[in-house]
């Protein structure tokens, strides 16, 4: 597993996993009906966004090559973005600290920022 993936699936996400319901059969077509279901569905949506980000990152890395100066700059920016994402989403979730919807808020933030970052990374792809 790449260092980037490890960073993307760091400690904050591990905490989110604890909030997911034990039952694997959650219908996310409507976002879930209980708070536990909503937490689970929000996490599932984030995982999809994360997978897309990692696919895009691999494509960018392949086009730029890992020996280029642009790649090194982008890698440094990506590492800083991960720190920003984690801090920003922790702050959003802190508004609901101790509440059952905090994991959903954090996952939703992760999804929103990850989707935006994926779009940003596509700017480095040549048509």
TrEMBL record:
It comes from the Bacteria. Keywords: Signal. InterPro entries: LprI-like_N. The keyword Glycosyltransferase does not apply. Residues 28-121 form the Lysozyme inhibitor LprI-like N-terminal domain. Residues 1-24 form the signal peptide. Pfam families: LprI. This is DUF1311 domain-containing protein.
């Amino acid at each position: 597993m790449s260092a980037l993936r490890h960073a993307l699936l760091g400690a904050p996400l591990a905490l989110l996993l604890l909030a997911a319901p034990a039952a694997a059969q959650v219908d996310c077509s409507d976002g879930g009906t209980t708070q536990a279901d909503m937490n689970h569905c929000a996490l599932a949506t984030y995982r999809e966004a994360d997978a897309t980000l990692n696919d895009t990152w691999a494509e960018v890395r392949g086009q730029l090559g890992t020996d280029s100066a642009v790649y090194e700059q982008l890698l440094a920016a990506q590492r800083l973005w991960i720190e920003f994402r984690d801090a920003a989403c922790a702050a959003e979730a802190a508004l609901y600290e101790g509440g059952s919807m905090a994991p959903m808020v954090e996952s939703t933030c992760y999804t929103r920022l990850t989707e935006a970052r994926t779009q940003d990374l596509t700017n480095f792809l040549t048509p």
